[in-house]
Automatic annotation (TrEMBL):
Protein name per UniProt: UbiA family prenyltransferase
Record Gene3D superfamilies: UbiA prenyltransferase
Organism (species): Ensifer adhaerens (Sinorhizobium morelense)
Subcellular location, principal: membrane
Cellular compartments annotated: Membrane
Keyword vocabulary terms for this entry: Cell membrane, Membrane, Transmembrane, Transmembrane helix
């Protein structure tokens, strides 16, 4: 006798599924998302700018550290896709993920998660204690975000603020590759967190606009519980709040540490503007981070931002010192 449709899960409703192959299990790790680790580079560059790194150590620590970060991020992706498979079945495009359309064995999935996590932590231990501790935090963030009873991804605003913790974590990973003794300024970590919140809120906005327009709000709420509380207006406002907090915290950092970074501000603003513009477009690439670099405008703005950031990190511009002065500057000194 057929099951009651109301008691059938979205995956069961798809009918019989083919058995998963090795390639299907590997797809859970999302190795195509490796471009996200570009967020490690600012931490690495800033540590090089504010300290005196050992070039010989960097030759080992950079590739080992990046491989460790990729492994732990992939472990988080595995658990994410596996625990989200029921809700992903209601999403217009995520319903094509392998965890949804093929039958997978839980013991193999959890084995893959543990293997990637162990590999990542073993590699992290080679880099140093700070890098290892940060890698543990990276792994924990994936559990807090995806696993009950907390499962922060189902809670409005907390879903954004928890997922984007990966940004300051990645920054700290980059810093720890260079410097195992000190911590980066709290202001820059907080700014990186808020910048990540902006990116994630813009992604939510893109999803809301696109899916609500094509499939209806009901499908959105079925796909992710946090959308039960979001509106297009609230997501747009949150983007502006996160962007303003990022600018304020970056201002605190540059006044205290390196005034040359003010040269990067216009480019960061342009980067945020392009990203928000992309989020409002139909079928926006911000919904699929692995395709972000398919946007030429974003590529150009990101490249310019990185170039100016490198320049500001290693080239002193004395004429900018007056901007950080804590006293009144005579007009005659500017002539």
């Amino acid at each position: 006798m057929p099951a009651n449709p109301e008691e059938t899960t979205p995956i069961e409703a798809l009918g019989p599924q083919p058995r998963g192959r090795a390639s299907d299990y590997l797809s859970l790790a999302r190795f195509d998302h490796v471009t996200k680790h570009v967020f490690i580079l600012p931490g690495l560059i800033l540590a090089c700018a504010l300290s005196e790194p050992d070039p010989a150590a960097l030759v080992i620590n950079i590739p080992v550290g990046l491989l460790s970060a990729v492994s732990i991020a992939s472990a988080n992706y595995v658990i994410n896709e596996w625990l989200d498979r029921e809700r992903d079945a209601a999403h217009p495009t995520k319903s094509q993920r392998r965890a949804v359309v093929v039958e997978m064995q839980p013991r193999i999935v959890y084995g893959e998660y543990l293997l990637l996590a162990v590999i990542g932590l073993l590699l992290a231990s080679v880099v140093g204690k700070l890098f290892f501790a940060t890698s543990l935090l990276f792994l924990l963030s994936g559990i807090l975000y995806n696993v009950e009873p907390i499962r922060a991804k189902d809670k409005p605003y907390l879903d954004v603020l928890t997922e984007c913790l990966n940004n300051p974590i990645r920054f700290l990973l980059g810093w720890a590759i260079v410097d195992q003794v000190t911590l980066p300024p709290v202001s820059v970590l907080a700014a990186y967190w808020m910048a990540g919140a902006f990116l994630m809120a813009a992604k939510r906005l893109g999803e809301y606009r696109d899916i609500a327009a094509n499939a209806g709000v009901a499908v959105l709420k079925k796909y992710r519980r946090s959308f039960e509380y979001y509106t297009e207006e609230s997501l747009t406002v949150s983007c502006f709040v996160y962007a303003m907090m990022t600018a304020f915290l970056l201002g605190v950092f540059l006044v205290k540490y390196r005034v040359e970074y003010i040269l990067v501000f216009p480019f960061i603003s342009g980067l945020f503007a392009v990203y928000l513009w992309l989020a409002t477009r139909p079928g926006s690439v911000v919904q699929r981070p692995e395709r972000l670099f398919h946007s030429r405008r974003l590529d150009v703005m990101l490249t310019l931002t990185i170039v100016v950031f490198l320049f500001a990190s290693f080239v002193n511009v004395p004429v900018l010192d007056f901007l950080a002065a804590s006293f009144l500057v005579p007009i005659s000194s500017l002539q």
